[in-house]
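User: I've been trying to design a sequence by hand for this structure and keep getting stuck. Would you show me what you'd pick, starting by listing the structure so we're on the same page?

Assistant: Good idea, let's start from the same input. This is the structure you sent:
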């Protein structure tokens, strides 16, 4: 599996990442959501550079011009609810993409023990398409794996791009072990060293869903 850590490159992404992490900025949910969108757009652009393109032509008012157009059918899939603004950033870039949505949530048995449950899925057929599976936080990897397996009920994509803003090293290794290595690329804006006893990424940024939409 190809694993790409975008924080290893200098770009404006570092500013957006700094703001979503910062306790001094997180109090503004509008700005938090907007930064998730902006990171999503930048990641989508980077992913677009890895896609397959073909030659074409476009008619202008004065003639024709050569163009290069992506030759892949894209589906952007999001895990509700924290993924919604991140998803929008991808959709702003891939504006003709199809869309899929999966609900995944932690059902706690006690303060530290939980199972992940999938209750809802809406997706087009995925056979032969390029699936962008996006979620801002990749803590354990369990939700992402379950979402991927739920989406496989709609067909087998030609390639899967797993995209996240912050991943734990544990989750990166988990996904690398469980998704097909020859058909998966994992993208992260940052990879943090570990998760705590509550399975939150450290240093991470906290609960992205609560920061975007308010406490549950």
């Amino acid at each position: 599996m190809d694993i790409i850590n975008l924080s290893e490159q200098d770009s404006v992404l570092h500013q957006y990442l700094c703001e979503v992490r910062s306790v001094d900025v997180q109090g503004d949910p509008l700005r938090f959501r907007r930064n998730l969108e902006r990171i999503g757009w930048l990641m989508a652009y980077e992913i677009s550079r890895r896609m397959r393109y073909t030659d074409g032509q476009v008619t202008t008012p004065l003639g024709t011009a050569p163009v290069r157009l992506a030759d892949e059918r894209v589906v952007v899939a999001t895990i509700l609810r924290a993924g919604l603004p991140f998803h929008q950033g991808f959709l702003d870039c891939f504006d003709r993409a199809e869309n899929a949505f999966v609900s995944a949530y932690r059902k706690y048995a006690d303060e530290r023990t939980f199972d992940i449950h999938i209750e809802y899925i809406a997706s087009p057929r995925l056979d032969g398409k390029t699936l962008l599976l996006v979620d801002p936080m990749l803590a354990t990897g369990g939700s992402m794996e379950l979402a991927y397996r739920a989406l496989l009920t709609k067909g087998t994509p030609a390639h899967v791009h797993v995209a996240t803003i912050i991943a734990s090293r544990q989750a990166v290794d988990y996904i690398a072990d469980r998704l097909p290595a020859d058909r998966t690329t994992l993208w992260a804006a940052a990879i943090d060293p570990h998760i705590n006893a509550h399975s939150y990424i450290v240093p991470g940024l906290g609960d992205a869903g609560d920061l975007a939409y308010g406490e549950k």
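That's my pick for every position. To get oriented when you compare it with your attempt: The helical segments are 13-21, 29-48, 83-93, 142-151, 169-178, 208-213. The mean pLDDT is 93.
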